[in-house]
Structure formats: structure tokens, C-alpha cells
Amino acid sequence: MSITLKRQLNDEEKKIILQQHGRFCYANGHVIPDGEQLQFDHIRAFSMGGASELDNIAPMCSLHNKEKGQLPLYDFRTKLRMREFFNKGDKLTLKHLLEYFRDQKEIVGFGQPIAVAEQNGIAVIESPSTHASHNVYECPITKWKYFYATLGVELIDSDDDEDHKIGLQPRYLIVDRVFELFRHFQNHPVMQPSIGRIVSNRVRIFDGQHKIAALLWNGRRTFECKIYLNPDIRLLNQTNIAAHDNFAQVRFYSSIMVLKLGSQFGKDFEEYRKLEDGSPKSEAGFLTYFRNRDGNTLKTAEINERFRSYLYNSVLESEDNKLKRLVSAGNRGSNEKPLTIDMLHKSLFAAFLYREPVADNMTTDAYKRETEISNMVHFLNMLDELALYAWDSKASPNDENQRRLNRLLGSKSMMAWSEILANAICPTLQIHDGDERQRPFYRELSDADFTKMRSVVARLVEWKRWKSPLNDEIDTILAGNKDDVKAWLKNKGLTTGYLMGAPE
After folding, report:
1. Do both 46 and 100 map to the same domain?
2. Range of the domain at 349
3. What are φ and ψ of residue 195, in 5° steps?
4. pTM higher than 0.70, yes or no?
């Protein structure tokens, strides 16, 4: 249309817009009641290339018009749709987004099987919808072959773990990152291709998934890609993790590192356990085996990090772990998921989980790692049953119980009381030797032991100062460093003796 938007639309212009869109709010499509005043706004902002014509104007309800703030209407509507998608969970990958677009009938499908033939420096790609040829290049360091191509959405998939195989997808989609890139790509080009590999006759993308996600939201259905034909999966995985952790501008979420490294390390661990070379199998032996294996380029500290990640992953991904519902997939907690891997790493895991490799023969009764993991899960469930089950993300600040839980789950608070709790639980379980106190759960524990432990944990979570009024001294103290917090808690009565039954 050629009618130019003026400062105020006249009745005829509003009528034309309503004929195009109906009396529906453009933000999410809901009906605007007859008695509610209509708002009109640019779909695409003039500053972002949107035309100042009626074709670029749409109706809105008052509520969404106010909520969108300075965002262009098109961006605001996309933000609402992203919110709908990301509310599905906090461990979503490009595959989940492709499924979402398919279910919304915005794409026909994705991940079509392909046939790849490579000869004389040319890769020929064929699928039900594609026949294309691409020049093949070779990495001078690894000798891996690869090609560059612009691939339609119907051909790509996410390199996730599936069919009991470890994928190379290194992290989950981050909503803020996707939205930032969505807005950026409206006026800026994509500088680097996404990267994938051919797996089981499919194109699996493992790097640049945020770029593809943002482009999908912008309506793009083809994507520039670099695709490996014959990479060494182990070295490629190590390289990919380093690229996203050590050298990336946007670092891995620590929880995702735990899940990724833990699952990969666990697979290597199982291969070692099944190795028939006549030698006794132990965790310490595995790390030596892993360190000396052909092609391994990891430093000792990196190997130790993978081992700890394997242990954390074993606890967090246990089907019996009730507390994992409160653990964020990000580096920061939220109202819904107040715990983070980093918090657990520095508090409960540090106090109760032995994180060094043991030399115990895995085939003997002396090896208690699986028992320790089970004990740790039981312990976390105890915390949940005694207190954390009541976590309410929507509770008022005046809610006394939620105030208690907020204070219990503060980062420095957890670090401090975890040490005090460990010092009470060890003597309760008759663990006095210094070396044994470092691994209190690396042993068989009876029902009677857990009953004793439960009484200690109950006294912790029921300590009266957790329920102090708003703006009490405790809130200022819990924002300090761990040692000061620990000293204050003990000075106010949260001592080892109190947790073991003595009066406060």
C-alpha cells in the first residue's frame, strides 16, 4: 500500500489495517475484546528497515503494547514465541528447535538422510530434495577432509547424544544469546559458517547452533556450513570442547561442561573397565591409561576435571535424585532453579564426595564408588524431604518458609554450613580418622546410619535464625565471604555440637 503512516492514524487507515489482520493482537494472536482500546505499531521498526506504510502496521492490545517497551513489534512477537519454546525445558538443543518449527508447520522437516560420494576432490551430496557437488579440502594438520556448502534446513540436524552414542553438540541453547543474535542478523551478515560432520548419512551440526537458531527465527531456511567427512571423533571432540571453553567469547555453562565431559569420560571409563589386559582395574589406573593413550593431548588438570565431571554427572543424572529439579542448566540460579553446579561443587560435593581417583580394585568389595554415589543421592534427597521440597519460586518475600530456604541456598551460606554439617555427620557415623573423614560416603551405610544423619540435617534446616525477619543481620552476613559467614553461623549457635543434639 502507498498510504504513509502519519503521527495519528485516521479511521479509514485503522479500518484497512483491521481488514488485513482482524481484531487480533499481533504479539501472540489473541482476540482483542470489543471494549478494549486498540493500539497500532510498526511491525518492523523504521530504523531496522521497516517501511512507514500501512502494510507494516499491526494492531496490539494495550497490555502487550506496554510490555514490549522499545522493542519493535516483530521482535517482541518473536521474543514471546521464544519464551514459549524455552519454557519447554532448560536443556534444549538445535534439534528441539527444529522439532518446534516442524510442529508449528514452519518447516516441512529436517535431518533428511543423504548419500555422500567423494572422488577427485569433489563431494557429491544427494537426498530426496538435493543434488549438489562441492569442492573438498584437506586440513594440513589432521588430514581430515571437509567441504563448504549452503544447506537447506531439510538437510541439517543437531549433533546430540542419541542411540547410546556421544554427540559433539557441546552446549544447550541460551535464550538471551539466541535473541541477541536474532536481532543482530536482521542487519548484519553471518561472518563464519556453522560446523558439522557426516554421521550415519546425516549432516549433524555441532558448532554454530546459536547462529542457525537465530537465523531460523528470522525466517532463514538455508545456512552456510563447513562439513567434515572423515574426522577422528575423539580429537574432534577435544578440539570442540576447547573451542567452546578455553577459547570462546561465550563460555560453556559449568553444568553443561559437567554433563558433556561426564558422559564422554564415562564412556571411556567403561571401555577401560572392560579391557582384558590382566591388570587390576582402578580409577587411578584409568587416569594413567587415559593420560598415556595414543592421541591424548589433555593436560593432567584437564583429565582430573573430566573425572570430577564424571562423578558430578553420576550424582546429578541419577534417576533417584529428587533435588536435580532445582539445579540450573546455567551458570546462574533462577527463581525456579536456585542451585548451580558451581554452588554444589564448592559446598556439598566438596564436603561429602571424594573427588580424587581411588586405587581400589574395581572388581573387589573394597571399591565403593557406586555406593558413594548412591549415598550422596540419598543425602540430597534427605535435604529435599526435610526442607527443599517446599521451594516456591512464586512465594512472597514475606513468606517465612521461603525466606528460610533462600538463606539456606545462598552460595556462601551453603559453602559455610556444608563444612559445619560434615564436621557433625562424621562423628555421628563414627568416622574419626583424618583420611576417612575426607570420604564420609565412600562406605556402606545402614538404615540406622541414615536415621542418625537425618536428625543432624533436620537440626540444620530448622535452625531458628534462618527464619529471622526481613533485613535481619543474617542477610548482610550471608553476602560476605565464606570464612566470615562460617564464623558468624558458629557464633550464633550453628555449631557442630548443636547439630549433634546439644542445646543452641
Report:
1. no
2. 320-499
3. -120, 140
4. no
Cα–Cα distance between 449 and 150 in angstroms, integer? 62
Q: How far apart are CA 439 and CA 368, in angstroms?
A: 10
Is 20 part of any domain? Answer: yes
In a domain, 99, yes or no: yes
The number of folded domains in the chain is: 3
Q: How high is the mean pLDDT of the chain?
A: 85
Cell of residue 432, nine digits: 574419626
Inside any domain, residue 273: no
84-93 LR contacts (CB < 8 Å, sep 24+) = 86/173, 86/175, 90/172, 90/328, 90/329, 90/330, 90/337, 91/172, 91/329, 92/172, 92/173, 93/158, 93/160, 93/169, 93/172, 93/173, 93/209
Average pLDDT of the segment spanning 385-414: 93
- Taking the CB of residue 92, how many other CB atoms lie within 10 A of it? 22
State pLDDT tens for residues 243-272.
Answer: 655 434 333 334 444 454 455 566 677 777
- Among the ranges given (157-171, 175-189, 337-351, 444-458), the one the predictor scored with the smallest mean pLDDT: 157-171
Collapsed DSSP state (helix, strand, coil) of residue 453: helix
Tell me: do 62 and 205 sit in the same domain.
no
